[in-house]
Recover the amino acids of this structure.
């Protein structure tokens, strides 16, 4: 089968994951991360291709994509902001960060900015309570406790232009 989404680069990474882990099933999640990093989403055809390549049922791979909120079938935006709303981050001021992020990006929680550059998602936990209120931009973790002003946050966002 000829693949549209599993390019030579993607297949090399999948092979790396297959060799790194004990089973080919353990290669699914890192392979999906690779696909999403390149295409900004998981195209349905890429699921079919990965299923064919790994010889794993398509439904199993699709189930992983729909179960984990880190994967998506639709492009959200060029940059995906995940802001923790769990208790430690809430108590540390995540609501204030949300208001600043909405103002600076033009996106509301659960939505895109008009220019398609930003998507803000409120998540339950990103496992970084020690630096609450913490947030991710794409896969980069930020320590909200070190951000003292809107200007500090603006400087961070400018890195993603």
């Amino acid at each position: 089968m000829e693949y549209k989404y599993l390019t030579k680069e993607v297949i090399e990474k999948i092979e790396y994951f297959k060799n790194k882990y004990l089973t080919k099933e353990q290669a699914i999640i890192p392979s999906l991360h690779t696909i999403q990093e390149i295409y900004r989403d998981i195209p349905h055809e890429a699921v079919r291709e990965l299923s064919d390549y790994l010889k794993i049922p398509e439904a199993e791979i699709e189930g992983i994509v729909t179960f984990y909120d880190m994967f998506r079938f639709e492009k959200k935006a060029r940059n995906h902001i995940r802001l923790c709303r769990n208790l430690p981050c809430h108590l540390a001021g995540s609501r204030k960060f949300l208001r600043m992020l909405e103002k600076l990006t033009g996106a509301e929680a659960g939505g895109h900015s008009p220019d398609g550059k930003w998507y803000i998602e409120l998540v339950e936990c990103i496992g970084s309570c020690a630096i609450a209120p913490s947030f991710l931009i794409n896969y980069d973790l930020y320590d909200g406790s070190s951000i003292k002003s809107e200007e500090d946050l603006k400087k961070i966002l400018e890195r993603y232009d």
